[in-house]
Amino acid sequence: MEWLRVARLWQDLIDLADHPYTRPGLFDSLGERVDEAEGDLKALAERTEARRALLPAELADEIGAVLRERFQYLRARTEPVHGVIRLNELEAAVEAAQWVLEMQLSVLRRAGPWSAHPDEKLAEAARGNIEYQLAFLHHYRTFQAGMARRRAELAKREKDGGEVDWEAFNVECEQKRRALLTAYQNRQLPRVRVVRDALPYVAALTQRPAPEAPAMVSPDSGRG
Asked: DSSP assignment of the chain, as one string?
């Protein structure tokens, strides 16, 4: 049941990306479902007396993060925006990656081996693009968390009376930001193991109808 709820939400987000529309309260209800899906993923990663864990914990965390990011992207894209939002180059690249991800998920759903008109070459290309965009989003998420953690450490040091070179910290942030952007643009990003391992589950979630449980997913699932 947990996996099916996650799969329905995953598919609904693909539908929303394919046919964006606004409806009062739409994203409030979707946000509640994202919360529920994250809980479902954690439940699938837990071992109980009744069953073994059906999903590795790090994959549950990764899929949950991707789900929430997809929801946030689609909400920002679909809901009216008031005022001017300025994005730096890396943030703009992240938004572009999210757009490509949604497009490629739609392509995979239409061309995968489970579809009415499978196209092995198109599906394989979509899987490759999905992995690359997810790897970039993972690297960006890690970068943001690392910089936030480092900023909090420096702020604590300063509060405790220590000296902090904020200019050096800002330079470090900018260097890492630029390096990540350049690697993404040149398609030189390192592959991410947890993203690679999550791909069969991503394919299963994208499949219509979705498998009933992640235990049905094998390392080769979704491949023609």
From this structure: -HHHHHHHHHHHHHHHHHS----TTHHHHHHHHHHHHHHHHHHHTS--SS---SS-HHHHHHHHHHHHHHHHHHHHHHS---S-----HHHHHHHHHHHHHHHHHHHHHHHSTTSSS--HHHHHHHHHHHHHHHHHHHHHHHHHHHHHHHHHHHHHHHHTT----HHHHHHHHHHHHHHHHHHHHTT-PPP-HHHHHHHHHHHHHHSSSPPSSGGG--TTTT--
Only one residue has tokens 């999905």, namely 130
Length of the chain: 224
Residues 177-200 pLDDT 10s: 999 999 999 999 999 999 999 999
* pLDDT for res 1: 85
The Cα 162–Cα 101 span in angstroms is: 44
For tokens 């394989």, the residue is 124
Share the mean pLDDT of the chain. 90
> C-alpha dihedral over 17, 20, 22, 28, to 10 degrees?
0
Report how far Cα 38 is from the mean position of its chain's Cα atoms.
Answer: 12
Quick: pLDDT tens for 123-169. Answer: 999 999 999 999 999 999 999 999 999 999 999 999 999 999 999 99
pLDDT tens, position by position, 96-116? 999 999 999 999 999 988 888
